[in-house]
């Protein structure tokens, strides 16, 4: 088996993860959870992503989601579980994934042999995921694999997303980046979300953002214009490389050729979803 090229796992993750994330931006999720009585978008997101862990409290959600203001989380969790059970939320999320993927990809792609191939490859990669110190991944790994190939692909992408995500939080802690510093420094790379979107969705105030910038400047990681210094760029690169090392096993298990094929397939699906308007324009830029 050929060795993995550098950052091959990261590239594969970057092709699969956004398609998983389309559900959280989809009106279909709001419709499904609204029918259960969960109408606030924040409550819907917290419930949909944390439901695999059961009726958890605000502290668990804030810890595992990392970059949300804990005060925002506590406004909706654990109260949301009085409105709908985690099991009901998971069923609603899967229905939303079904309608979202059918709308974004089209019925021909959903029924295609390529999507079935991608599902099989992604599920094979998840065979090497590990549960230790990965709470969101471990909770999702207990869920059954859906029968339909497009939902099996979405489920596998979910597992790979949360596996890398849990590892990424450990890397952020190792780098000494608190939740808002992580957001500020990521945005400064040019690859993160727009500050106005973060402030609108993560529960932080402008003063919080500016205070995080000041902390990063005091460490020599950010310049006066809000751009990363050489030291800041190096730290962000090390965070990603540290994450890569902790998330390597699924892609080594899959092998270089299959990782390349899964990345190719995933990028194709993702481009189709982008063209169909999967993400709001205001989230970036």
Helix content estimate: over 70%
SSE order: HHHHHHHHHHHHHHHHH
Biggest sheet features: none
| End-to-end gap | 40 Å
Task: Give the helix tally.
Answer: 17
What is the domain tally? Answer: 1
What's the shape? Answer: globular
Which structural category do the helix and sheet elements fall into? mainly alpha
Average of per-residue pLDDT values: 96
Strand content: under 5%
The low-pLDDT segments are none
If you compute it from the alpha carbons, what radius of gyration comes out, rounded to the nearest whole angstrom? Answer: 19 Å
Number of strands: 0
Protein name: SalK
Pfam family, one: HTH_67
InterPro entries: HTH_67
Question: How would you portray this structure in words?
Answer:
With 285 residues, this protein is mainly alpha-helical. It has one domain (8-279). The protein contains 17 helices and no strands. The protein has helices spanning 8-25, 27-34, 41-50, 58-65, 70-76, 80-83, 86-105, 107-110, 113-126, 135-141, 149-175, 179-188, 195-201, 206-218, 230-246, 249-254, 256-275. α12 crosses α14 (206-218). The protein starts with 7 loop residues before the first helix and ends in a 10-residue tail after the last helix. The model has no long low-confidence stretch (mean pLDDT 96).
Topology:
Blueprint: H1 8-25, H2 27-34, H3 41-50, H4 58-65, H5 70-76, H6 80-83, H7 86-105, H8 107-110, H9 113-126, H10 135-141, H11 149-175, H12 179-188, H13 195-201, H14 206-218, H15 230-246, H16 249-254, H17 256-275
């Amino acid at each position: 088996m050929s060795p993995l090229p550098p950052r091959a796992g990261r590239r594969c993750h970057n092709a699969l993860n956004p398609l998983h994330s389309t559900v959280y931006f989809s009106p279909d999720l709001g419709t499904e959870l609204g029918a259960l009585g969960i109408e606030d978008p924040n409550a819907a997101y917290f419930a949909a992503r944390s439901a695999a862990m059961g009726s958890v409290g605000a502290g668990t959600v804030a810890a595992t989601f990392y970059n949300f203001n804990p005060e925002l989380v506590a406004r909706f969790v654990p109260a949301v579980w009085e409105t709908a059970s985690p099991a009901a939320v998971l069923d609603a999320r899967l229905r939303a994934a079904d309608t979202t993927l059918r709308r974004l990809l089209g019925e021909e792609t959903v029924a295609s042999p390529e999507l079935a191939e991608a599902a099989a490859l992604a599920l094979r990669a998840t065979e090497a995921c590990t549960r230790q110190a990965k709470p969101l991944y471990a909770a999702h790994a207990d869920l059954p694999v859906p029968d339909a190939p497009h939902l099996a692909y979405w489920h596998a992408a979910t597992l790979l997303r949360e596996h890398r995500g849990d590892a990424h939080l450990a890397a952020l802690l190792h780098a000494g980046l608190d939740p808002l510093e992580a957001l500020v420094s990521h945005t400064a790379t040019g690859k993160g979300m727009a500050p106005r979107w973060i402030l609108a969705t993560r529960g932080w105030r402008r003063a919080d953002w500016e205070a995080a910038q000041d902390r990063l400047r005091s460490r020599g990681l950010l310049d006066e214009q809000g751009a990363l210094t050489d030291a800041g760029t190096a730290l962000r690169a090390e965070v990603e490389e540290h994450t890569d090392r902790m998330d390597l096993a699924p892609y080594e298990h899959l092998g270089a050729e299959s990782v390349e094929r899964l990345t190719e397939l995933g990028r194709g699906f993702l481009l189709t979803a982008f063209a169909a308007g999967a993400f709001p324009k205001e989230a970036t830029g």
